[in-house]
Amino acid sequence: MTARQLQAELTLVLRVLLRQPGFWVPTVLFPAMLYAFFGAGLAGSGPAAGYAMASFAVYAVLGVGFYQFGVTVAQDRADPFIRWQRLLPGATSAPWVARIVAGVGFSAVAMGLVLVLGKTLGGVVLADTGGWGRLVMITLLAAGPATLMGTALGSLASARAAVPLANLIFLPLAYLGGLWMPPQMLPETVAAISVWTPTRAMGELAWAALDGRSLPLRFAAVLAGWTAFAAAITWAAQARHGKLNFG
Amino acid sequence: MRGNMSTSHHKPIEALDIAKRFGAVTAVAGLSLHLGRGEALGLLGPNGAGKSTALAMLMGLRVPDAGAVRLFGHPPGSAAARAMMGVTPQAAGFPDQLTPRELLSYATARRARAVPFDDVIAAFGLSPVIDRRMAGFSGGEVRRVALALAFLGRPGLVFLDEPTTGLDAEAQQAFRATARGYVQDGGALILTSHHWDEIEAVCDRITMIDKGHKVMDGTLADMRARMQARRISFALPEGAHPPDWLRATHAGDRWHAETDDSDACLRRLVDEGTPFADLIVEPLALPDVIARIKPENRP
Predict the structure, then answer these.
(1) Which of A8, A12, A87 is the closest to B87 by Cβ?
(2) Do A12 and B106 touch (CB under 8 A)?
(3) What residues of chain B lie within 8 A of the CB of A16, using their CB?
């Protein structure tokens, strides 16, 4: 993959996305808006304010990765333009690399807006200012598993079913994971399920990063398990499509 | 311009006995196909005959269950093969947000060396729309962009799947001129089309497939030479009938018949005193030639 090709792929992806404000404005604004309505005000001040901001930062990255750059593989399977791209000279992986880079970029902007709102509207004050950097790092890392889980769903579902299915899975997962309200406030049965969700794992990692605590290994293992599961589904589904489509 | 062609002594397409099944359905069976430099091949067949599957295997979008394909000696889908070919997709589906110029510069960036694209812009009359976003392009305009992308950088081999669907007469003429020029310069071209006149204008050879099998293969010149058949038509006075041996059919105000020896046929009509008028003798059109050859070759 040459730098020239990668640049051309990125230019193509960003042109297509940025020229659809109807796509990127809601994508980027939605997590910040939810945070402004339900996160910033309700958490009050003190450590809870920081945790709420971190939760919505995870939510922002998760949403962009899961929906915009994961689930869309269902649509892409049937896309003649992507078929044509596969027949062009050069590295066939470059379009995918460009999509991932663009996905991380959009995730970062969506998360950045939440952090800015956290500082201004949410009154978040971190005793350890290194927490900001650690939070950004760990949430961006979470974009990887999030995108992979979206890809798994997109690989299984038909183009028409992918987005409704994603809603059905994603919104409950955000609630179960304690991203919308602190896990301590979840009902008991919900709390028992919560600790096994990938969203809770991402949240725990983000909260620990914020405080500068060592990362909770238990939750890191849960997230690794989900990631491996999603990777296996994606691999199996792609192999099946490969047989149907190109094999 | 076409430096990459001279580096290989292999044929642009060599396919040997390729086959593809989908479950219980045989899409393509034992198809062999060769395409040399400076040759244009028309791939014909009714809908569902296996044309698209065959093309997909040749291009590298599908892997054959059996047999082998080589493009310039390279496996289809490999970087070396992709570097030497150009493709127009059947349903282009270009993103609405892009302009033709942006797409062309993207496609040229995917090549090892950038190539100019003023020639394809001119060849397919894209200048007026070159900087307009493709949302709202007519089917013909989209198709011209797709053709420009296929010929971009003058690759050694071009795949054209139904290239002129939706093109107006002028654009079709422009396409034929470009395609012939490209083939005369040593390019290899494979084309599927429903337009017989287009295949006649562009292709040197045709391969016809039906139900996954090759049913006919040959050069157009051979085919015409082999087929001395002519169509004759004439008018008869009210109430008169042509002789039974002619097996003529009545359509419109005229009688029509096909014959392998028009001279002998006409002499006999004159000898028998058939009162024909307004006689027309013409060679069979390509589809009729093929319809007559096909039963002889059918396995």
Answers:
(1) A87
(2) yes
(3) 95, 97-98
Q: How far apart are CA A162 and CA B197, in angstroms?
A: 44
DSSP for B24-72, written as a single string:
TEEEEEEEEEEE-TT-EEEEE--TTSSHHHHHHHHHTSS--SEEEEEBT
Per DSSP, B155 falls in state -
What DSSP designation does B74 have? Answer: B
CA distance B42 to B44: 6
CA distance A202 to A145: 9
- Sort out which chain A residues have CB atoms less than 8 A from B143's CB and list them: none
- What are the Cα distances from residue B266, in Å, to A32, B233, B263? 88, 11, 5
Reported confidence tier of residue B299, pLDDT bands at 50, 70, 90: very low
CA distance A34 to A42: 12
Instruction: List the one residue out of B189, B182, B231, B186 whose CA is nearest residue B206.
Output: B189
Given a contact cutoff of 8 angstroms between Cβ atoms, the answer to whether B132 and B101 are in contact is: no
> Is any Cβ of chain B less than 8 angstroms from the Cβ of A15?
yes
Report d(CA A93, CA A85) in Å as an integer.
Answer: 10
Average pLDDT over residues B38-48: 88
Encode pLDDT of B121-137 as tens digits.
999 999 999 999 999 89
CB contacts < 8 A, A to B, total 71
Whether A90 and B79 lie within 8 Å, measured CB to CB: yes
How much of chain A, in percent, has pLDDT values that exceed 70?
Answer: 96
A33 touching B (Cβ < 8 Å): no
A21 Cα to chain B: minimum distance (Å): 11
Helix H or strand E encompassing B213: strand B213-219
Higher pLDDT, B50 or B290: B50
Cβ pair B76, B69 in contact under 8 A: yes
Q: Which residues are registered as beta bridge partners of B85?
A: B157
Adjacency order of strands within the sheet including B25-35? B25-35, B13-22, B66-70
